[in-house]
Amino acid sequence: MPLLLCFALILLAAVLLSSLANRTILSTAVLFLVAGFVLGEGVTGVVPLTPSDPSVKLLAELALFAVLFTDGMKVGWPQLRTAWRLPGRALGWGMPLTLVITALAAHFIVGLGWPESLLIGAVLAPTDPVFASALVGNDKVPPRLRHLLNVESGVNDGIALPFVMVFLAISAGSGDLGLGALGLELLLGLVIGLAVPWLALRLERLRFFSASTQYEPLNALAIGIVVLALAQAVHGNLFIAAFTAGITVATFGSRQRQAFEHFGELIAELLKLAALLVFGVLISPAFLAEISWAGWLFVVVAIFVARPVALWFSFLGARLNLREQAAAMWFGPKGFASVVYGLIVLKSGIAGADLLFHLIAGTIVVSILLHSSTDVVVARWLDDAAETPAWHRRLRRFTGTDRSEPSGGEKAHAARS
């Protein structure tokens, strides 16, 4: 009951502050994270939760499923085929390089063994643009950049999962890596994500079935719940199933996609904020104090070096302008996938699981604070038509990316200088 009441009160506060958050660096994601931190046992003890509580993992998985399902509905197979060049670079080169650079940092800075270093690299490789929503959801931001970040984040969660499982098995010293079972899990998720939406959409086209206007937004919701339940029942991969199902609906049911779009985003937002609140509860001052200086140095490298360097290399010759490339390099926030995979590592019982979870959680916390607070700033920087502050325009001219003329006030100020 305390958790539900706290969530309701913080949600009300977030709604009342949402307009201000859309215009400033204030972030609702940070609000829920900080509120969870304050309400946790390490500060006030209002909400007693531990990482071993089953509700923690359940909520994180539901939130990630909802986010991937709604992300998948933003693109269809035709769009993926015709605009795959940049996401392909980010996934084919950027993601493996991010994993390797993160693993190198974990090995040489923190002193982890190679299996554990590769494991934490795989956990932190996926990105989550939910925490950069002002960028991904802004029509003024170049479409190819929004498409790049959206497709990359939706696909890389599932791509990272096999690596997480393999490196986890190696870290545990298991001789049987279970690759056959893992491959079957991924295949089942893919099949369920394709078959269930396709069959449901075909049924609706029969003359005996037709969704009323009132219930039409629930059509895609029902499809998502069936996909979730079936994937759990047959042990298919939930996240592959979610993203594939979203793409299938977008491809074969444009009307259902439009009816569900706003409703689905609200559901995903609610689950995301609830998961952030719970994650914040798990992070206490004592928890953060247990991270050594080497651990914090690793966090800095994981955020400021790993992805920027990896994407800089990946986009060589891609003809992205400076602003687009800088935004793509910066926005590699760690979100629900890393939270879920981190909890899997914590509960695995491998040697050093607690240390790995501390490093993962520290990186996620810093990432959310940084990326959620800079999305509006970067979105304005990318928007040529926006009424941006003078310092934005000066920054654009300094980087050579401003095509507009200085305003009269700026010219007069320059003349006086």
What does this 3D model show about the protein?
The chain is mainly alpha-helical and 417 residues long. The protein has one domain: Na+/H+ antiporter like fold, CATH 1.20.1530. Helix content is 76%, strand content 0%. The protein has 19 helices and no strands. α14 runs antiparallel to α15. It is globular, with a radius of gyration of 22 Å. The termini are far apart.
The computed structural class is mainly alpha
User: What is the CA-CA span between the terminal residues?
Assistant: 61 Å
Average pLDDT confidence is 82
CATH fold-type name: Na+/H+ antiporter like fold
Spans with pLDDT under 50 lasting ≥5 residues?
Answer: 403-417
- Give the fraction of residues assigned to helices: over 70%
**What is the quaternary state of this protein?**
single chain
Number of domains: 1
| CATH architecture heading | Up-down Bundle
Major sheet attributes: none
Count of alpha/pi helices: 19
- Strand fraction equals under 5%
Instruction: Say how many strands there are.
Output: 0
Features:
417 residues, mainly alpha, Na+/H+ antiporter like fold, 19 helices, disordered C terminus
Describe what is shown at a glance.
By secondary structure, the protein is an all-alpha fold. Helix content is 76%, strand content 0%.
How are the secondary structure elements laid out?
Blueprint: H1 2-23, H2 28-39, H3 54-72, H4 77-82, H5 85-110, H6 114-124, H7 133-136, H8 143-171, H9 179-204, H10 216-234, H11 238-252, H12 254-282, H13 285-289, H14 293-314, H15 322-330, H16 336-348, H17 353-382, H18 390-399, H19 408-416
